[in-house]
Structures are given as C-alpha cells and as structure tokens.
Write a structure and sequence with these properties.
Helices cover 38% and strands 11% of the residues. By secondary structure, the chain is of the alpha/beta class. α3 runs parallel beside α5. The two termini are 16 Å apart.
Length: 285
C-alpha cells in the first residue's frame, strides 16, 4: 500500500517550473514555480522535459517538486483544484481525462513524461465481507482510471518519442500488487492489473521509443498512512503492524519513492522499460 491511495481526490499544486513549452516561451503564470538558477519571470531557453503528474498526494507532490528542481516544466492535476480555476482531472470520467490531457498539452506545448499516482482512501475489509460498491470504486480508480489516462496520453508521448525527445510513462502501483495485502484484495488486484498494463504497453511502444514502467512503493510515511494506522478495527491493526515486516525496519518516504520516478523519466533510464520497481525497504524481493 502506498501514498498513491487517495491521491486522485486530494488537492495539489498547479504548474511547476515554466519552460519554453515547445513552440515558444510562455511566461510563468499563477502557480508556476521558477526553477533554481532562473530569475523570477525568466524562462529557460532549452528543451526541458514537459511533464504531467496525475494525482496530488504526497508522492505526487514530491515528484513534481523534484522534477522542477531538475529543470522540468510540470503540470499537476487532481480531482480537486488547488485554487479556483486550477486544473482538475477525475480519472473515472472519460471527458475529464480527455479535457485535462488536452489542457496540459496546450499549456506545456506537448508531453514528454507522464506520472500517474492515483488511488482511493478506503478501509480494509476481507473480500467475503466486502460490498460490490467497495470493489467497483477501488477498481474504477486504481485500474480503469489508470488505463483511461494511459490511452489519452500515449499518442502525445509517442509523438514526442518519434521526434527524438525522451518520452516516458510511469505509473505508481504498490508492492501489494506483488505480495497481496490482508483486507485489500480489490486494491491488490487493481494494482496487479496495472503491472500487466505496463508490460503490455511497454512492448507496444518500445520501438517508438517510449518507456513504460511502474514504481511499487511499500508502506510509506504519509499523513494518510498515519491516519490509517491510528484507525480502529482491521485497518488500524494491519497498518500499525506493517513496519515489523519490512527488513529495513522503517517506513519509506515520499521523497524516496519520487527519486525512483525521477530516475525512470531521465535519459539514464532510456533502456529500462516494462519493469516494476519496488521501493519498499526489502518488503518484496
């Protein structure tokens, strides 16, 4: 389980780090953060990566901030706008995804990398006690929502890759996709389905080239994790005991997960595709 849970419904940042955005320089706007080393109001005149981050939880925010420091132009979208008029995307709504992707492409001048870190905040329950609505809501966001985003961003990533730019898609899954998780069958199944999608889409796009990978966090120290660990019943019991099963004997941090994502979209990872990288302190090996 990771901070990806609940990210799609959380408010987050808007635009981070302006760039030349393809056809011409666009000055910083509300919500933009100027990269380190650039004077306020200046625009770096180099082909920096144009990145869309879908999901504004703590991992998504750490990714956006880290990529901005690296010099990328980053647009973050979530179900709830960070401010009135800010960019939004509901991954369970086809029209919302289509419009959100189109707006990001127009704003950035194209897409070179997309990071999808979405999920649902839900209590744990054994599958034989679960409701159909519980299952559908989780799968609708964590699997079908990811597939919907991928369908809409891939044409733009393929265009970037064919033009000689470094193009990549990274999906945040979970170590529960590999090991399962007590009381979380629906999410574990959805996350495992995402890994199947990643491998298939990686094969379909390797020659373009577009790399497609997944990052699988283990238990990660976020506000949501701490809230669930303090919950009553099965949810609190499972979450509060997770650290004991981690060989590193500690939780991961959003910044550690973000660092692996930043590597996977970098030029140094151009020959890595179709992989599911665990960032879990050895929870799965």
């Amino acid at each position: 389980m990771s901070d990806a849970r609940g990210a799609v419904g959380a408010a987050g940042s808007d635009d981070v780090a302006p760039t030349d955005r393809g056809s011409g320089a666009v000055p910083p706007g509300p919500g933009d953060v100027v990269p380190e080393g650039c004077a306020s109001g200046s625009v770096p005149q180099r082909p920096d990566p144009r990145v869309l981050v879908v999901g504004a939880g703590e991992i998504g925010a750490a990714v956006a901030e880290g990529l901005a420091r690296d010099g990328a132009a980053v647009r973050t979208v979530s179900r709830t706008a960070a401010h009135p008029g800010g960019p939004v995307m509901d991954v369970t709504d086809e029209d919302s995804v289509r419009d959100g992707v189109a707006a990001a492409v127009e704003h950035l001048g194209g897409l070179d990398a997309v990071i999808v870190t979405v999920g649902t905040r839900h209590e744990l329950v054994a599958l034989h006690e679960a409701t159909g609505q519980w299952t559908r809501e989780i799968v609708g966001v964590e699997l079908l929502g990811v597939l919907t985003v991928a369908r809409h961003v891939l044409p733009h990533l393929r265009e970037a890759g064919a033009a000689g730019r470094r193009a990549s898609l990274v999906v945040v899954s979970s170590d529960s996709a590999k090991a399962g998780s007590f009381g979380d069958a629906a999410s574990s199944a959805a996350r495992a389905g995402v890994l199947g999608m990643v491998r298939s889409v990686a094969r379909e796009n390797a020659a373009v080239p577009v790399t497609v990978n997944a990052v699988c966090p283990g238990p990660t120290d976020t506000a949501m994790y701490r809230e669930l660990a303090d919950a009553q019943g099965l949810t609190g019991k499972v979450f509060s005991g997770m650290t004991r099963g981690i060989p590193a004997r500690r939780l991961g941090t959003p910044e550690e997960v973000a660092a692996s994502i930043r590597f996977l979209v970098s030029p140094g990872a151009a020959y890595i595709t179709g992989q599911a990288i665990s960032v879990s302190g050895g929870l799965t090996m």
